[in-house]
Specification:
Mean pLDDT: 97
Helix content: 25-40%
Shape: globular
Strand order of the largest sheet: 3-2-1-4-5-6-7
Largest sheet: 7 strands, parallel
Oligomer: single chain
Distance between the termini: 28 Å
């Protein structure tokens, strides 16, 4: 398969690249250090990414900027960071990418455990995750040409604990390579409309 991996340079993206790259051709996209530069908050940039990549068998997104901070500190402007990055960015990958995914292909988006297990400071990211989950479920019944769509909801990653650990008291982190297996399941499997939760 020819797979377009958005967010390939991040912790999760690197693990997904390592797993899927064993069997498939990977085209990387991201803000830096990728085959194709893309700004997910800019629809025109997404269109240009697809024009550059050409037709693919699968699109996988492990990117999406989100704001972390308390509800009392959350302003419409700070919330927009998550809306334009994690939420609209991933949904626009699907809306603008349908014509670039081959018949029977797939999209795999990323949500996160906090949409189901809330944490202090995670309200903005959880909001986006819940919206993406609902989008995936709804879009799955309307996807053309046998194209599938799923999302992966990983626990906090072991490799990210230095940064995000304080937000996740009592959570048992998982290695990124284990989360990557859920992306393999989505890309190489047959299910659609699913949320693959990795605890």
């Amino acid at each position: 398969m020819k797979i377009l991996l958005v967010g390939a340079s991040g912790t999760l993206g690197t693990a997904v690249h390592n797993e899927l790259g064993k069997r498939h051709e990977i085209i990387t996209a991201g803000r830096k250090g990728a085959d194709i530069t893309v700004d997910m908050s800019d629809p025109e940039s997404i269109v240009n990414m697809y024009k550059t990549s050409g037709m693919v068998d699968a699109v996988v997104c492990t990117a999406g900027q989100a704001y972390f901070g308390s509800l009392q500190e959350l302003t419409p402007e700070l919330n927009e960071i998550t809306i334009s990055g994690k939420l609209k960015g991933q949904i626009n990958l699907v809306l603008l990418g349908l014509d670039y995914v081959r018949d029977q292909g797939s999209f795999t988006l990323t949500t996160g455990i906090i949409m189901d297990s809330p944490i202090i400071g995670g309200v903005s990211s959880a909001m986006a995750g819940g919206a993406i989950k609902a989008f995936v479920q709804s879009a799955a019944i309307e996807m053309p040409r046998g194209i599938r769509i799923n999302n992966v909801s990983p626990n906090v990653l072991e490799e990210s604990m230095d940064t995000y650990g304080p937000y996740f008291p009592g959570f048992e982190p998982i290695p990124a390579r284990r989360a990557a297996l859920a992306f393999q399941r989505s890309v190489e499997g047959a299910q659609t409309g699913q949320t693959y939760t990795v605890y």
